[in-house]
Specification:
Blueprint (H helix, E strand, L loop, with lengths): L2 H45 L21 H9 L2 H5 E7 L4 E6 L4 H4 L3 E3 L10 E5 L22 E6 L2 E15 L14 E7 L6 E9 L2
Parallel strand pairs: 2-3, 4-7
Antiparallel strand pairs: 1-2, 1-5, 3-4, 5-6, 6-8, 7-8
Length: 213
């Protein structure tokens, strides 16, 4: 075989290997995702039967990183949902249904959405929640937040009761520098949701809704 043909064969085989590796990675990710969905479904059903009153939860905002399955496994092993679940958030129009966990940590963000300020209560001030954008057009965490539309309903249930909000404002390219969106001076009886925009590194997907009377 000529040197030219040998190089061509090596190139083709290398390309085939990389394509195969890419397919394997996608299959592996799909299997991990399905496993996560099944585990979360069981834990979430259990957590909904009791909403905790969590005291002294930590808010480790400065150490947050992208979703990592190691955090997810640790969260499952540490029973994070049942320990820190204070309620649920449901957005029927886009299929979001997640536990609300008190405090901020990588483990909590891997299995639910989190309160970003201490001592928040739904129906009062600016109830702010954050979550990972785990999958584009996916079923995990805030992966479908980008598909919320004005007028959609957001339902938050806690020990205080069930609160229904209507979406009034959406921004899919909000700069991460706008940290004021979670401040209480933004309004009364509102909820603020945000997640990363996977298309841009420095932007956030931001949704705001107002409490329905």
């Amino acid at each position: 075989m000529s040197k030219k043909n040998t190089i061509l064969v090596v190139f083709v085989l290398t390309g085939a290997f990389l394509v195969g590796l890419g397919v394997f990675k996608k299959v592996e990710l799909y299997q991990q995702t399905q496993q996560q969905l099944m585990q979360k479904k069981a834990l979430f059903a259990k957590a909904r039967t009791k909403f905790n009153s969590v005291k002294h939860a930590k808010y480790d905002n400065k150490v947050i990183h992208d979703f990592d399955y190691k955090d997810y496994k640790a969260a499952i092993d540490n029973d994070i949902i049942n320990k820190y679940s204070i309620g649920t958030i449901t957005i029927p129009s886009v299929g979001i249904k997640e536990p609300i966990l008190e405090g901020v940590s990588n483990q909590k963000l891997s299995v639910g959405v989190v309160t970003v300020k201490p001592n928040q209560k739904p129906g009062q001030g600016n109830y702010a929640l954050a979550g990972h954008n785990q999958l584009n057009n996916g079923k995990l965490l805030f992966g479908n937040l980008a598909y919320v539309k004005p007028g959609n309903q957001i339902i938050i249930s806690t020990k205080e009761g069930t609160f229904k909000y209507q979406v009034t404002q959406i921004d899919k390219r909000l700069s991460a520098a706008h940290g004021e969106i979670i401040d209480d001076n933004q309004g009364e009886g509102i909820v603020t949701l945000y997640t990363c925009n996977n298309q841009t590194n420095n932007d956030r997907i931001f949704v705001r809704a107002r409490l329905l009377e």
